[in-house]
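Lecture 7 notes: from sequence to structure.

We start with a single chain of 274 residues. Read the sequence below before looking at the structure.
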Amino acid sequence: MKKLIALLTVFGFLTFGTANMAFAQKQQNADQAAATEQAAEEVAEAPATAQAELSEDPDDSINQSLHYTLKDKFIQGGAVWMTPVLICLILGLAFVIERIFYLNLSSVNSRKLLDKVENTIKTKGIDAAKELCRDTKGPLAAVFYQGLDRYDEGLDSVEKSLTSYGAVQMAKLENNMTWISLFIALSPSLGFLGTVIGMVQAFDDIERAGDISPTIVAGGMKVALLTTVFGLISAMILQVFYNYLLTRIDSIVNDMEDATISFMDILVKNKENK
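Now the structure, written as tokens:
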């Protein structure tokens, strides 16, 4: 009887322990499945969140980085030498903008103006043609007006007037170009000067330290060379605009010379018809 009771007791403990182990294993599996599902949801949501953040403003970080990089390099180069280079660039661009506006106002359709002057001379006379040229903007119309103003003195006087006043108008087209060329030469010169002085300061730092440390040499040379970099960039920008302006001036001058020859032919025909 005692053996039977002992066997039943052992059997009960084994059954209860097995049930508890099965329940614990089932609970652990359920917890692991829930954690796995939550991790999968977080992984699925992470790319979407990152993509949403990138889609908000993809260029903002790039622009901010470029802005701060330029600002940092400018500060590293030293305000004493970087500021004059920046002033040269700003003043040079100011003269460039002024010349672009002036040349745009000076550009006219010479063929159309010649046709108007010729028709006006035929129908209304020289005085009406002078009024037309006076009311028309541009150096070409001013040259025509000076020629018509000397019409009564003869064609030789008209030709001399066109030549002399044409030279005056051409000189006006080239106003302020010398200032632009000055800033083109001055920008890299200031950069080189800042570089040389920066190298001298770097050697002074080496002398004070008493040792040729790569950190001292690299830092001083970096600051010194930044002024040359910015000076060359400034000069290149101004040089591009300078060549563009020279091309525009040459085009206007050539057009004025061709139009002046055609204008003289119109006056000669008008003399012959009289």
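Residues 1-26, 42-56 have pLDDT under 50 and may be disordered. Keep this in mind for problem set 3.
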